[in-house]
UniProtKB/TrEMBL annotation:
PROSITE patterns named among the record's database cross-references: HTH_GNTR
Transcription as UniProt keyword: yes
Keywords assigned by UniProt, alphabetized: DNA-binding, Transcription, Transcription regulation
Source organism (scientific name): Amycolatopsis pretoriensis
Pfam families: FCD (PF07729), GntR (PF00392)
Sequence ranges assigned to domain HTH gntR-type in this UniProt record: 11-78
Name of the molecule in the record: DNA-binding transcriptional regulator, GntR family
Highest taxon listed in the record's lineage: Bacteria
MF terms (GO), sorted A to Z: DNA binding; DNA-binding transcription factor activity
Transmembrane segments: none
C-alpha cells in the first residue's frame, strides 16, 4: 500500500484507512447498515487489521459507525429527524447564498453548471445514486460558491458536510426524484441566465431543496 501524504506529511496507515472508509460512507458505497468486515477491508487496502480497527474506532467516535456485540462494526443508520432539520436549514441558507452569488457569478460559471446538469441528465438512464449525488453537489457548489458573505458560505458548506455525515441521499431511496431534480436545476439555470431578481433565485433554490426533503419523507411515511 502506497504511503499517501497531506501537505507533504506522510499519513499513517490507520489515517489512510480512515479517509478511505469515510469517503465510501459519504458517497453511499457503504450504505447505512453496511457491515464493515475488518479482514475484508484490510485485504482491499493491503494492510493488516490493526490500522483498520483504529480507523473504525475513529469513525465510531464521530458517529459514522456503530459497533454491536455479535454483529460487529456497521455503518450507522440514518437519523431521520437530523436529516429533516439539516435539509430545512440548508434550504434557508443555500437559497440566500445563491441569491447573493447570482450577481457576482464568475465568467463560465453558468456554462459549468449547465455542463454538470447535462451529466446529471446522462446518469438518469443507468442510475448510480453515488455518482448522481456527487455531481449534484458539484452543481450546487457552482451556484453558491461565489457567495460574497463568508459566514453564509460557511453555513452552507457545513450543511452539506452534515448531509454527508448523515450518510443518506434521497436519490438512493427515491430514484424518481433525480429526474425532477434535474428539471428544477434547469429552472434555476433559466432564472440565472435571464438575470431574474435575487428573490426569485432564492425562492427557487429553497423550493428545490424542500422538494427533495418532501420526497424523502413521503417515501419513508407513505
Amino acid at each position: 500500500m502506497a504511503r499517501e501524504t497531506v501537505n507533504g506529511t506522510a499519513m499513517s496507515k490507520s489515517r489512510i484507512a480512515y479517509e478511505w472508509i469515510k469517503a465510501r460512507i459519504a458517497d453511499g458505497t457503504f450504505s447505512p447498515g453496511y457491515r464493515l468486515v475488518l479482514g475484508q477491508l484490510a485485504h482491499e487496502l493491503g494492510v493488516s487489521v490493526v490500522p483498520i480497527r483504529e480507523a473504525i474506532r475513529l469513525l465510531e467516535a464521530e458517529g459514522l459507525v456503530t459497533f454491536e456485540r455479535h454483529v460487529g462494526a456497521q455503518v450507522a443508520m440514518v437519523d431521520e429527524r437530523e436529516y429533516q432539520h439539516t435539509m430545512q436549514t440548508l434550504a434557508l441558507v443555500e437559497g440566500y447564498a445563491a441569491a447573493l452569488a447570482a450577481p457576482v457569478l464568475p465568467p463560465g460559471a453558468l456554462a459549468e453548471a449547465r455542463a454538470l446538469n447535462a451529466e446529471l441528465t446522462g446518469c438518469l438512464g443507468h442510475f448510480e445514486p453515488a455518482r448522481f449525488t456527487a455531481l449534484n453537489r458539484d452543481f450546487h457548489a457552482v451556484l453558491f460558491g461565489a457567495c460574497p458573505n463568508p459566514q453564509v458560505l460557511d453555513l452552507v458548506r457545513r450543511g452539506w458536510d452534515r448531509l454527508s455525515g448523515l450518510r443518506t441521499s434521497t436519490f438512493s431511496f427515491v430514484p424518481g426524484r433525480a429526474r425532477q431534480s434535474v428539471a428544477e436545476h434547469e429552472h434555476i439555470l433559466g432564472l440565472l441566465g435571464d438575470g431574474a431578481p435575487a428573490a426569485d433565485v432564492e425562492q427557487a433554490v429553497r423550493a428545490h431543496r424542500l422538494a427533495t426533503l418532501d420526497a424523502f419523507l413521503a417515501h419513508r411515511h407513505p
